[in-house]
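quick one before i forget lol
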Amino acid sequence: MKRNSIKILSVNISHEKGTIKKPVDQIQLTHIGVDADAHSGHWNRQVSLLGTESIEKFESQAKRKVMPGEFAENITTSGINLWTTHPLDRFTAGEMELEVTQIGKECHGSSCAIFREVGNCVMPKEGIFCRVLSPGTMKAGMEMEYHPKQYRVMVITLSDRASAGEYADLSGPRINELLEAHFASLNFQFSIFNYLIPDDPQKLEELLNRAKEELFDLIFTTGGTGIGPRDFTPDVVKSKLDKEIPGIMEMIRMKYGSDKPAALLSRSVAGVMGKSLIFTLPGSVRAVNEYMSEISKSLTHMIYMLHGLDAH
Protein backbone atom coordinates (compact mmCIF):
# COMPACT_ATOMS: atom_id res chain seq x y z
CA MET A 1 0.00 0.00 0.00
CA LYS A 2 1.02 3.59 -0.54
CA ARG A 3 2.04 5.78 2.38
CA ASN A 4 -1.09 7.12 4.09
CA SER A 5 -3.10 4.35 2.41
CA ILE A 6 -5.68 2.37 4.36
CA LYS A 7 -7.04 -1.06 3.42
CA ILE A 8 -10.75 -1.65 3.95
CA LEU A 9 -11.06 -5.13 5.43
CA SER A 10 -14.80 -5.21 6.06
CA VAL A 11 -17.91 -3.03 5.79
CA ASN A 12 -20.61 -3.60 8.41
CA ILE A 13 -24.19 -2.63 9.21
CA SER A 14 -26.58 -2.86 12.16
CA HIS A 15 -30.23 -1.88 12.23
CA GLU A 16 -30.26 -0.95 15.95
CA LYS A 17 -27.93 1.29 17.93
CA GLY A 18 -25.80 -0.32 20.63
CA THR A 19 -25.63 -3.68 18.84
CA ILE A 20 -22.93 -5.53 16.95
CA LYS A 21 -22.77 -4.81 13.23
CA LYS A 22 -22.69 -7.58 10.64
CA PRO A 23 -20.38 -7.66 7.59
CA VAL A 24 -22.08 -7.07 4.24
CA ASP A 25 -20.87 -7.18 0.64
CA GLN A 26 -20.96 -3.41 0.28
CA ILE A 27 -22.31 -0.26 1.89
CA GLN A 28 -23.80 2.79 0.26
CA LEU A 29 -22.45 6.04 1.68
CA THR A 30 -25.02 8.83 1.50
CA HIS A 31 -24.96 12.41 2.72
CA ILE A 32 -26.39 11.21 6.04
CA GLY A 33 -24.18 8.16 6.54
CA VAL A 34 -24.44 4.47 5.70
CA ASP A 35 -27.71 3.58 4.01
CA ALA A 36 -29.87 1.27 6.16
CA ASP A 37 -27.55 1.63 9.17
CA ALA A 38 -28.92 2.67 12.56
CA HIS A 39 -26.33 5.40 12.99
CA SER A 40 -27.04 7.33 9.80
CA GLY A 41 -28.59 10.74 10.23
CA HIS A 42 -28.03 14.47 10.23
CA TRP A 43 -25.27 14.49 12.81
CA ASN A 44 -21.49 14.24 13.07
CA ARG A 45 -21.15 10.52 13.86
CA GLN A 46 -22.54 9.21 10.59
CA VAL A 47 -19.85 6.59 9.89
CA SER A 48 -17.65 4.75 12.40
CA LEU A 49 -14.21 3.29 11.70
CA LEU A 50 -11.99 0.98 13.74
CA GLY A 51 -8.59 -0.38 12.79
CA THR A 52 -7.20 -3.86 13.26
CA GLU A 53 -4.33 -2.11 15.05
CA SER A 54 -6.82 -1.49 17.89
CA ILE A 55 -8.70 -4.76 17.55
CA GLU A 56 -5.53 -6.86 17.79
CA LYS A 57 -4.61 -5.20 21.09
CA PHE A 58 -7.99 -6.21 22.48
CA GLU A 59 -7.64 -9.74 21.12
CA SER A 60 -4.34 -10.21 22.94
CA GLN A 61 -5.96 -9.07 26.19
CA ALA A 62 -9.18 -11.05 25.76
CA LYS A 63 -7.40 -14.07 24.26
CA ARG A 64 -10.03 -14.51 21.62
CA LYS A 65 -10.67 -13.58 17.99
CA VAL A 66 -12.81 -10.54 17.30
CA MET A 67 -14.87 -10.48 14.13
CA PRO A 68 -15.37 -7.36 11.99
CA GLY A 69 -18.27 -5.27 13.26
CA GLU A 70 -18.22 -6.62 16.81
CA PHE A 71 -17.38 -3.18 18.15
CA ALA A 72 -20.14 -1.65 16.01
CA GLU A 73 -17.78 -0.11 13.48
CA ASN A 74 -19.10 0.47 9.96
CA ILE A 75 -15.66 0.16 8.40
CA THR A 76 -12.89 -2.13 9.64
CA THR A 77 -9.50 -0.95 8.42
CA SER A 78 -5.80 -1.68 8.39
CA GLY A 79 -2.87 0.61 7.66
CA ILE A 80 -2.71 3.44 10.19
CA ASN A 81 -3.52 4.00 13.85
CA LEU A 82 -6.87 5.69 13.34
CA TRP A 83 -6.94 7.19 16.84
CA THR A 84 -3.95 9.38 15.94
CA THR A 85 -5.98 11.27 13.33
CA HIS A 86 -7.70 14.56 14.12
CA PRO A 87 -11.10 16.12 13.46
CA LEU A 88 -11.20 17.69 9.96
CA ASP A 89 -8.70 15.16 8.56
CA ARG A 90 -10.14 13.38 5.51
CA PHE A 91 -10.23 9.97 3.80
CA THR A 92 -10.84 9.52 0.09
CA ALA A 93 -11.62 6.47 -2.02
CA GLY A 94 -12.27 7.37 -5.63
CA GLU A 95 -14.96 10.04 -5.55
CA MET A 96 -15.96 9.19 -1.98
CA GLU A 97 -14.78 11.46 0.80
CA LEU A 98 -15.14 11.23 4.57
CA GLU A 99 -14.20 13.89 7.11
CA VAL A 100 -13.17 12.99 10.65
CA THR A 101 -15.49 14.56 13.21
CA GLN A 102 -14.67 12.81 16.48
CA ILE A 103 -12.05 10.56 18.08
CA GLY A 104 -13.62 8.08 20.49
CA LYS A 105 -16.93 8.45 22.31
CA GLU A 106 -18.61 8.00 25.64
CA CYS A 107 -18.73 4.38 26.79
CA HIS A 108 -22.11 3.24 28.16
CA GLY A 109 -20.61 0.19 29.87
CA SER A 110 -23.00 -2.57 30.93
CA SER A 111 -25.98 -0.75 29.40
CA CYS A 112 -24.48 -1.39 25.95
CA ALA A 113 -25.16 -4.71 24.24
CA ILE A 114 -21.66 -4.72 22.77
CA PHE A 115 -20.03 -4.31 26.17
CA ARG A 116 -22.18 -7.09 27.64
CA GLU A 117 -21.45 -9.48 24.79
CA VAL A 118 -17.76 -8.73 24.19
CA GLY A 119 -16.81 -7.73 27.73
CA ASN A 120 -15.08 -4.49 26.78
CA CYS A 121 -15.02 -1.96 23.97
CA VAL A 122 -12.18 -0.17 22.22
CA MET A 123 -14.44 2.20 20.28
CA PRO A 124 -14.63 4.80 23.10
CA LYS A 125 -10.86 5.31 22.98
CA GLU A 126 -9.63 4.28 19.54
CA GLY A 127 -12.59 4.26 17.18
CA ILE A 128 -13.19 7.34 15.06
CA PHE A 129 -16.26 8.90 13.52
CA CYS A 130 -16.75 10.69 10.21
CA ARG A 131 -19.33 12.53 8.21
CA VAL A 132 -19.84 11.92 4.50
CA LEU A 133 -18.74 14.72 2.19
CA SER A 134 -19.02 12.78 -1.07
CA PRO A 135 -21.16 9.62 -1.31
CA GLY A 136 -20.49 6.36 -3.12
CA THR A 137 -20.33 2.57 -2.80
CA MET A 138 -17.69 1.05 -0.53
CA LYS A 139 -16.70 -2.58 -0.18
CA ALA A 140 -14.01 -4.72 1.38
CA GLY A 141 -10.73 -4.81 -0.55
CA MET A 142 -10.85 -1.13 -1.50
CA GLU A 143 -8.23 1.34 -0.32
CA MET A 144 -8.65 4.81 1.14
CA GLU A 145 -6.12 7.62 1.15
CA TYR A 146 -5.57 9.56 4.36
CA HIS A 147 -5.27 13.36 4.07
CA PRO A 148 -4.35 15.20 7.29
CA LYS A 149 -5.88 18.65 7.63
CA GLN A 150 -3.38 21.31 6.53
CA TYR A 151 -4.11 24.53 8.39
CA ARG A 152 -3.38 27.66 6.37
CA VAL A 153 -2.57 30.78 8.34
CA MET A 154 -2.09 34.35 7.14
CA VAL A 155 -0.13 36.73 9.40
CA ILE A 156 -0.27 40.42 8.43
CA THR A 157 1.95 43.05 10.02
CA LEU A 158 0.82 46.65 9.49
CA SER A 159 3.58 49.20 10.01
CA ASP A 160 4.66 52.17 7.91
CA ARG A 161 8.16 52.16 9.40
CA ALA A 162 8.78 48.40 9.36
CA SER A 163 7.52 48.10 5.78
CA ALA A 164 9.89 50.94 4.80
CA GLY A 165 12.82 49.05 6.34
CA GLU A 166 13.38 51.51 9.18
CA TYR A 167 13.29 48.65 11.70
CA ALA A 168 12.66 44.90 11.69
CA ASP A 169 9.20 43.45 12.10
CA LEU A 170 9.29 41.55 15.41
CA SER A 171 5.57 41.06 16.06
CA GLY A 172 4.75 39.02 12.94
CA PRO A 173 7.62 36.55 13.50
CA ARG A 174 6.59 36.25 17.16
CA ILE A 175 3.07 35.23 16.12
CA ASN A 176 4.71 32.61 13.89
CA GLU A 177 6.75 31.21 16.78
CA LEU A 178 3.76 30.93 19.07
CA LEU A 179 1.57 29.34 16.40
CA GLU A 180 4.28 26.85 15.48
CA ALA A 181 4.59 25.77 19.11
CA HIS A 182 0.81 25.54 19.48
CA PHE A 183 0.31 23.43 16.35
CA ALA A 184 3.30 21.22 17.16
CA SER A 185 1.81 20.45 20.59
CA LEU A 186 -1.34 19.20 18.83
CA ASN A 187 0.54 17.42 16.03
CA PHE A 188 -1.35 19.54 13.49
CA GLN A 189 0.05 20.23 10.04
CA PHE A 190 0.17 23.87 8.98
CA SER A 191 1.55 26.51 6.65
CA ILE A 192 2.04 30.16 7.62
CA PHE A 193 2.13 33.00 5.09
CA ASN A 194 3.52 36.35 6.25
CA TYR A 195 2.84 39.80 4.83
CA LEU A 196 4.39 43.12 5.88
CA ILE A 197 2.45 46.13 4.63
CA PRO A 198 2.25 49.83 5.47
CA ASP A 199 -0.71 51.25 7.37
CA ASP A 200 -2.84 51.20 4.26
CA PRO A 201 -6.54 50.24 4.51
CA GLN A 202 -6.76 49.24 0.86
CA LYS A 203 -3.79 46.88 1.06
CA LEU A 204 -5.23 45.27 4.18
CA GLU A 205 -8.63 44.84 2.55
CA GLU A 206 -7.01 43.22 -0.49
CA LEU A 207 -5.22 40.68 1.71
CA LEU A 208 -8.39 39.91 3.66
CA ASN A 209 -10.32 39.35 0.43
CA ARG A 210 -7.58 37.01 -0.77
CA ALA A 211 -7.61 35.08 2.51
CA LYS A 212 -11.36 34.61 2.27
CA GLU A 213 -11.26 33.50 -1.37
CA GLU A 214 -8.38 31.07 -0.74
CA LEU A 215 -10.07 29.63 2.37
CA PHE A 216 -7.39 30.43 4.92
CA ASP A 217 -8.26 28.92 8.28
CA LEU A 218 -6.74 31.62 10.45
CA ILE A 219 -5.79 35.26 9.95
CA PHE A 220 -3.79 37.29 12.46
CA THR A 221 -3.02 40.97 12.07
CA THR A 222 -0.62 42.91 14.26
CA GLY A 223 -0.52 46.67 14.47
CA GLY A 224 -2.98 49.53 14.01
CA THR A 225 -5.39 48.65 16.85
CA GLY A 226 -5.05 51.86 18.88
CA ILE A 227 -6.71 55.27 18.63
CA GLY A 228 -4.08 57.11 16.56
CA PRO A 229 -4.79 58.71 13.18
CA ARG A 230 -3.21 55.73 11.33
CA ASP A 231 -4.91 53.05 13.47
CA PHE A 232 -7.65 51.58 11.29
CA THR A 233 -7.09 47.78 11.42
CA PRO A 234 -10.17 46.95 13.56
CA ASP A 235 -12.38 49.13 11.38
CA VAL A 236 -11.37 47.38 8.16
CA VAL A 237 -11.62 43.94 9.75
CA LYS A 238 -15.03 44.64 11.30
CA SER A 239 -16.41 45.57 7.90
CA LYS A 240 -15.47 42.07 6.68
CA LEU A 241 -16.82 40.02 9.58
CA ASP A 242 -19.86 37.77 9.36
CA LYS A 243 -19.81 37.28 13.12
CA GLU A 244 -17.84 39.03 15.83
CA ILE A 245 -16.46 37.15 18.86
CA PRO A 246 -16.30 39.99 21.38
CA GLY A 247 -15.68 38.00 24.56
CA ILE A 248 -12.07 37.09 23.79
CA MET A 249 -10.81 40.62 23.28
CA GLU A 250 -12.94 42.02 26.11
CA MET A 251 -11.44 39.52 28.54
CA ILE A 252 -7.88 40.23 27.36
CA ARG A 253 -8.37 43.99 27.73
CA MET A 254 -9.75 43.60 31.26
CA LYS A 255 -7.11 41.06 32.33
CA TYR A 256 -4.11 43.10 31.27
CA GLY A 257 -5.73 46.52 31.58
CA SER A 258 -6.17 46.07 35.32
CA ASP A 259 -2.40 46.41 35.72
CA LYS A 260 -1.60 48.40 32.58
CA PRO A 261 -4.39 50.91 31.87
CA ALA A 262 -2.96 51.65 28.40
CA ALA A 263 -4.00 48.12 27.38
CA LEU A 264 -7.63 49.26 27.63
CA LEU A 265 -7.05 51.55 24.65
CA SER A 266 -6.65 48.63 22.27
CA ARG A 267 -9.59 48.23 19.89
CA SER A 268 -8.63 44.68 18.91
CA VAL A 269 -11.42 42.51 17.52
CA ALA A 270 -11.94 38.83 16.78
CA GLY A 271 -14.47 37.18 14.53
CA VAL A 272 -15.50 34.98 11.64
CA MET A 273 -15.04 35.90 8.00
CA GLY A 274 -16.43 33.18 5.77
CA LYS A 275 -14.61 30.01 6.89
CA SER A 276 -11.76 31.98 8.47
CA LEU A 277 -11.16 33.03 12.05
CA ILE A 278 -9.54 36.44 12.29
CA PHE A 279 -7.81 38.15 15.21
CA THR A 280 -6.40 41.70 15.28
CA LEU A 281 -3.50 42.07 17.71
CA PRO A 282 -1.63 45.19 18.84
CA GLY A 283 1.78 45.85 17.35
CA SER A 284 4.13 45.20 20.29
CA VAL A 285 5.78 41.85 20.98
CA ARG A 286 4.63 42.01 24.59
CA ALA A 287 1.02 42.47 23.50
CA VAL A 288 1.35 39.63 20.98
CA ASN A 289 2.53 37.34 23.79
CA GLU A 290 -0.37 38.34 26.00
CA TYR A 291 -3.05 38.06 23.34
CA MET A 292 -1.78 34.78 21.87
CA SER A 293 -1.57 33.16 25.32
CA GLU A 294 -5.32 33.73 25.74
CA ILE A 295 -6.42 33.06 22.15
CA SER A 296 -4.58 29.72 22.02
CA LYS A 297 -6.63 28.37 24.96
CA SER A 298 -9.78 28.18 22.86
CA LEU A 299 -8.38 28.27 19.32
CA THR A 300 -8.94 24.59 18.49
CA HIS A 301 -12.43 24.72 19.96
CA MET A 302 -13.24 27.76 17.82
CA ILE A 303 -11.97 26.02 14.69
CA TYR A 304 -14.12 22.96 15.34
CA MET A 305 -17.20 25.06 16.13
CA LEU A 306 -16.75 27.01 12.91
CA HIS A 307 -16.84 23.70 11.02
CA GLY A 308 -19.96 22.50 12.82
CA LEU A 309 -18.26 20.02 15.15
CA ASP A 310 -19.40 19.50 18.73
CA ALA A 311 -16.13 19.81 20.63
CA HIS A 312 -17.66 19.72 24.12
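fyi The first strand starts at residue 5 and ends at 13.
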